[in-house]
Amino acid sequence: MKNYDAIFIGAGQSGPFLAARMAGKGMKVALIERKYLGGTCVNAGCMPTKTLVASARAAHVARRGADYGVKITGGIDVDMKIVRKRAETVIMDARNGLIGWFDGMETADIVYGQAQFTGPKTVSVNGETLTAPQVFLNVGARPVIPDFPGLKDIDYLTSTSIIYLDTLPRHLAVIGGSYIGLEFAQMYRRFGAKVTIVERGPKLASREDEDISDAIEDILRAEGIAVHTNADGIAFAKRGDGVDVSTGAGRPVIGASHVLIATGRRPNTDDLGLDAAGVATDKRGYITVDDRLMTNVEGIFALGDCNGRGAFTHTSYNDFEIAAANLLDGGDRRVSSRIPAYALYIDPPLGRAGITEKEARFSGKKIMISTRPMSRVGRANERGETQGFMKIIADAETKQILGAAILGIEGDEAIHGIIDAMNAGTTYPALQWSVPIHPTISELIPTVLGDLKTV
Ligand SMILES: Cc1cc2nc3c(=O)[nH]c(=O)nc-3n(C[C@H](O)[C@H](O)[C@H](O)COP(=O)(O)OP(=O)(O)OC[C@H]3O[C@@H](n4cnc5c(N)ncnc54)[C@H](O)[C@@H]3O)c2cc1C
Ligand SMILES: NC(=O)c1ccc[n+]([C@@H]2O[C@H](COP(=O)([O-])OP(=O)(O)OC[C@H]3O[C@@H](n4cnc5c(N)ncnc54)[C@H](O)[C@@H]3O)[C@@H](O)[C@H]2O)c1
């Protein structure tokens, strides 16, 4: 049995940073990873996908060159081998950076293998047992593959395998119209494929307000992407070298060459031996944690996607910050004080902070709302990209900003003005007095705040 001060299972966007902090204090730590350091974000998530999105945008801008007076003679060709290589380079640089970083830590052992609990404080890996008074779980999640009729008879892609595709599909059918599905759908359309999105629900990006979902659909349709919502009988059948995708009784059948399944993710908690440790999960398999990220077992913590309190790299990293503050720095940080924020990386992107309009209306608070189309934002006009709109929701009584959405060029960056104000507790009348830089998208935030109306 090998003794450590702390064991980390899974090298996602949380555990490795806490392990490094502890190793920096001379504590003996083991970081167990069954595949690659960096987990999903580095190897199969944010980093490769945003690299691919950048290639897709380059193709899109090149095709629109003439709108700006830039003439490209000849067609626009996308070399999928180079596209894939860029993503692989970004992955390998980040992964190797982490490997090099940990190599330099004297009291940190990296163990490659599948970890499983054998007791509350004992973990087995590669036939060896490790023990520590503290265990941190950062095991992440993996794609959900629904039991669609005919799916097992076809080759299908997931968000992980599609990163390694180096040929252009003739027709990509994307099943699931949320973050993963929408980012890949637009990207592959821009690479030159025909693309159809098939979504079970009535709207794309259904967590958002309907006006946002509708604007997203408009953006995608304008690029020639077909969208089928309310698809309630999805089934697959092989046909020649392609796949027939049924979207329900009496509804269209799509003749696809490739199928991407993007119907959500599930936590990697089913093969972790949680029962042996007595660690509780909810009915979807997410590990139950308290406000300081400890499970029901003293000394065992769950960080990142596997605790169901966030599903993003920044929420996982913030879990590290909370654990480090509480366990190493004498702080008292809690997950419940985190203000939700994220972006959807279609182009133009959607930047989001706080709650949606529908959540605000449901809360029973007296609210104020203001919207502005991007066509009335100078910077968007100058850049020739006027799709989308901005929306801000505030509490009419406390004057706090409750939420915001910026669907438009640079929306993922401009939203940070709102995120920062919300985190600092700045009221909207105070934020109205900021003097933003001209010409930017952000400069319209005080104007939108000035137009807030009680609803
Ligand atoms: C296609 C895609 C795009 C995304 N884009 C974004 C984005 O733009 N922005 C954003 O914020 N988020 C994005 N995400 C989500 C983001 O990747 C995750 O939220 C983030 O990686 C946090 O994950 P994590 O820290 O919980 O664990 P992960 O990064 O998932 O890492 C978990 C690690 O644990 C390992 N592991 C699991 N079980 C065991 C075991 N029993 N023993 C040993 N090791 C184990 C796994 O191999 C994995 O390496 C995206 C996700 C996907 C799939
Ligand atoms: N930009 C980002 O930050 C980003 C990008 C990609 C992924 N992610 C993370 O990855 C997670 C997973 O993303 P996702 O898009 O796969 O999942 P999701 O849970 O957001 O959406 C899944 C979609 O598939 C649909 N769906 C589910 N079952 C279906 C079925 N049987 N048939 C048809 N449609 C079905 C749902 O209605 C939903 O629209 C997200 O929670 C997100 O946190 C983040």
UniProtKB/TrEMBL annotation:
Keyword set includes Thylakoid: no
Cofactor note: Binds 1 FAD per subunit.
Residues annotated as domain FAD/NAD(P)-binding: 4-316
Limits of the Pyridine nucleotide-disulphide oxidoreductase dimerisation domain: 342-446
InterPro entries given in the database record: FAD/NAD-bd_sf, FAD/NAD-binding_dom, FAD/NAD-linked_Rdtase_dimer_sf, Pyr_nuc-diS_OxRdtase, Pyr_nucl-diS_OxRdtase_dimer, Pyr_OxRdtase_I_AS
Keyword Disulfide bond among UniProt keywords: yes
Membrane-spanning intervals of the chain: none
Positions with a binding annotation for FAD: K50
Active site: H438
Binding-site positions, NAD(+): G176, G177, S178, Y179, I180, G181, L182, E183, E199, G264, D305
EC number(s) per entry: 1.16.1.1
GO molecular function: flavin adenine dinucleotide binding; mercury (II) reductase (NADP+) activity; NAD(P)H dehydrogenase (quinone) activity; oxidoreductase activity, acting on a sulfur group of donors, NAD(P) as acceptor
Disulfide feature: C41-C46
Segments forming a coiled coil: none
Cofactor dependency: FAD
Keywords: Disulfide bond, FAD, Flavoprotein, NAD, NADP, Nucleotide-binding, Oxidoreductase, Plasmid, Redox-active center
Domain of life according to the entry: Bacteria
Record-stated family: Belongs to the class-I pyridine nucleotide-disulfide oxidoreductase family.
Protein name stated in the entry: FAD-containing oxidoreductase
Organism expressing this protein natively: Rhizobium sullae
